[in-house]
Design a protein that fits this description.
The complex is a heterodimer of chains A (about 725) and B (about 290).
Chain A: H1 3-26, E1 36-40, H2 44-55, E2 61-65, H3 68-78, E3 87-91, H4 95-101, H5 118-123, E4 125-126, E5 129-130, E6 132-138, E7 141-145, H6 156-162, E8 171-174, H7 180-189, E9 195-196, E10 201-202, H8 206-221, H9 231-239, E11 243-248, H10 250-259, E12 263-266, E13 270-271, E14 276-277, E15 281-289, H11 291-294, H12 297-306, H13 309-318, E16 322-323, H14 334-345, E17 347-348, H15 353-370, H16 376-390, H17 401-425, H18 429-464, E18 468-469, E19 476-477, H19 481-487, H20 500-529, H21 537-549, H22 552-562, H23 569-581, H24 594-621, H25 626-634, H26 639-667, H27 670-677, H28 688-698, H29 703-729
Parallel strand pairs in A: 1-2, 1-3, 8-11, 15-17
Antiparallel strand pairs in A: 3-15, 4-5, 6-15, 6-16, 7-11, 7-12, 9-10, 13-14, 18-19
Chain B: H1 2-35, H2 56-62, E1 66-67, E2 73-74, H3 76-108, H4 114-124, H5 129-142, H6 149-173, H7 177-185, H8 190-201, H9 203-219, H10 222-227, H11 236-242, H12 251-281
Antiparallel strand pairs in B: 1-2
Helix pairs in contact in B: 1-12, 2-12, 3-6, 3-9, 4-6, 6-9, 7-8, 9-12, 11-12
The chains are: A alpha+beta (about 725), B mainly alpha (about 290).
Amino acid sequence: MTPADVLRSATVRFWPALVALALWLAASVAHAGEPIRLWHAYRGAEEQALDEILASFEGEVDLLAVPYDAFASKLESTVPLGEGPDVYIDAHERLGDFVERGIVAPLPFALSPEAYPDKVIAAVTIDGRPYAAPTSQKCLALYVNTALVAEPPASVERIAALADALPDGTFALAYEARGAYAHAAVLAAFGGALLDTAADDYAFEGPEAARSLEFVAALIEAGVVPEDADGALVTNLFGAGQAATAISGPWLAADLDRDQIAYVVVPLPTIEATGERMRPLLTVEAVMLSPRGAQNPAAVDLVEHLSGAEAAAIRARVARSVPARADLELPPDPLREAFAAQAELAEPTPSTAAMRAVWEPANRAIRKYLRGEVEAEVALAEARRRYDDLRRPPPPPASPTPALVVLGLLCLFGAGLLVHRARKLGPGAGLAALRQSLPAYRYVALGVVAVGVLVVLPILFGAGAALFAGKPHAMYYVGLANFTQILTARGGSLLATGSFYVVLAVTVLWTVVNVAFHLGIGVALGLVLSRPAMRLRGLYRVLLIVPWAVPSYVTALAWRGMFHRQFGAVTGLIHAINDLLGTSLEPIAWFSNFSTAFAANVATNVWLGFPFMMVVTLGALAAVPSDVLEAAEVDGASRWQRLTRITLPIVAPTMIPAVTLGAIWTFNMFNVVFLVSGGDPDGTTDILVSEAYRWAFTREAQYGYAAAYAVLIFLLLLITSRVADRLLNRGPK
Amino acid sequence: MTRRADLLESLAAHTVILLAVCFSLYPILWVVSLAFSGATSLEPQVLPIPVEPTLEPMREVVGATRVEPDGGEIWLFGRQLANSLVVSTATALIGVSIAIPTAYAFARFEFVGRREGMRLLLATQMFPAVASAVPLFMILEALELLNTRTGLVLCYASTSVPFAVFQLRSAFEAIPEDLEEAAMVDGATRFEAFVRVVLPIARPAIAVTFLFAFMTAYNEFILAATLLDDERAFTLPVVLQRFIGEYDARWDLFAAGAIVVSLPVMLLFYQVQRHMVAGLGAGGVKG
């Protein structure tokens, strides 16, 4: 078969497939008769309850379960464009943000004060208007393993007293001590709060806050509470019977049904040190209307149906949810009643922008203090500074005139440059060159259009956003203010954690170390694999490529799990080494130190990236002529000489493009840093791109600010690559 | 003496490679072990062996169904797997078809804007997606492609073009120009020579480029989760993401899903890996 035949037969085989594909893609899922669109993030029993509730609804509903992490960003990117859901179910905390962005419309009906407790109505009311119909309430409570503890202890101190009597490896109290959400309950018992609701200002400071932190640290120190516990670990410990009590929410109960653990739920205990009860934050789940949904009477009917008494009864029966309504007669259920009793004692999480800015500084302060790095007061003062930094006033609007003048000058300059070039070529030569280029343009036309519209244009718009500030959809021009703020570290110390220069240094270190390892391991393995006498080469190659084939978000999370201090495989390895060699190595708290957290990130990324370099090396080595090597051997060149004088010089030019791209990708490797260390400890392992991500999505959507980061990253890479290019091209060529 | 040295060297080589294989497989075996565990071990383990082995998570993930409004039941997971495969295949086909002529022009023609074009392509790789995602939505909205799989495919395909052009350009440059010239002397046009002579020789490189484009689309979830508006249109990474909520994460389901998701790519890798060495290294001949 000639090559042409191959191509022809391939085309013949491909066409029907291509046509079918096009048809399939064109038939995007139709919304017949415009049913009401309802979005939620429920799973398991709650999803079942929702299905059952919808079964008794008259109209047609198009239901979409959205991943929790994507929920807010999906709403933000669709609703303002008139797309997205008519009705959605979300937590009341997000209402403040949604109102500011115009994603939610006020309820067209009033919430009866007889039907709902006052604080539930207050939770969904903003500026005197109700914005959502409450359905259920969620908060933390105390789970007690009845096999380990006969009577629910009345105070945290009594729980702590259990510790000695419990078997080894079993904790008296499991909860997410390092998170501000759970700590808020402890803080309340000490008379403090994360936010001063009256003044709408940061309140996680002062002696109460410090004492609450010291109290928790003592519990961890005494082995009562596991250190470094996240939600999943709490679930696992309690589910495996390795925690006498646990502080968790209703979601834990759903998991426990599978584990067949005997337990009861009671309201959170008191803290004897203060004599006060722990009071958790309350989340009110509520049905919200998008502006488009508010125009649709059927959608409003759906909201009433979802928040009605009948729906609450179904939810209570199927998912054991605590109803938001107070006017219901429900069959007895000890679990639901315990959570209901706790909900009565809980305070709704404020939904203001100030509250949203509290989380990150508070979380970091708690972790930093619990790691034992600083005094409580120091950690709290730092958190206050971070909060003020996040809530700093946006830059004032600037006049666009200077920018327009600069733009005009640039255009003039560009035009001048073009004219100059054309002149230099001689009269008519510019046109002739263009005419000669026509055939090539036919080949690149498609590429130019595709990359131009869907790659370059978004980049240009994104870069342009760096000159603006404010919420998306309400941005205003501020000139270079974002850049000035970044480059001056927003008035703080230029060498403080999180300042542009420190993060840049970390990023450069990150890139250099990673690329060095990628190259070192990749080239070494490539050389070994390409030995002429190597057996099993094909098998080895396949096995070594595997890290590349598995999605990186999966393996990054697997690596994070392996580095867990108490339960990770790396700790297992350390134990095994201790057993084997009789050493007494301590398990390492990987994410408590910059150097170890950075090492964990690097290990993950090296693992992800070395196969690419190995394959590139193998390809490049295939091009090394064997006769030259043989000749060198005959001439008495040692193996090392052959490698450094012949093989590597031949291989190097081929690998330069791959190394350049590898370095660029590593510089912007967001997944690994975000998923493995998450910036821990204290944001020190964040690189520029993860910092930009935080500004764009978790810190009040300071989108222009994030865009300015992106532009700076781009400029840095561009300049570096140009300089490197110059240096390399001045070399042997 | 030399035979013994050879043997030792061979032993050392295999040891190095086996260590590397352990390093590369260990985390993946953890994912596998998690997917088949019926319980979570709370002792740090060294060997990734499932605790209370079970097929339950796998069944739960793969067996996911959905009841349609008309009462019929569809195999949701199957539908979503098909979505992933079709979207990724379409991405790779479109991306590679766009990149092939573009790369050929960059490899063979002198034209105004050639150098600038290559630099621009490299520059697109430098700008973090964080800042270009939102404008992308606005452009898709303007093109009325929001919430469609077509829009998703076009986005993925365009994003995959720059890297595909780098790959293919060096592959085309490695092919001696004499071959096309010979064909053209025989009466073929430039385009015919390109299609009949160059493309068949470049097949390994095209296969590798196809694989890369396929993977870009197959593993992507941020854009897919934000763009797609119907459970039946979801791709698998979006489905996986649903297993990890803020408070309750079902790692067993996540791991089981991850394995199923990885299988097609592994198969593809296995198929293409022979070409991969040739395809990635082809630039070497010309530098």
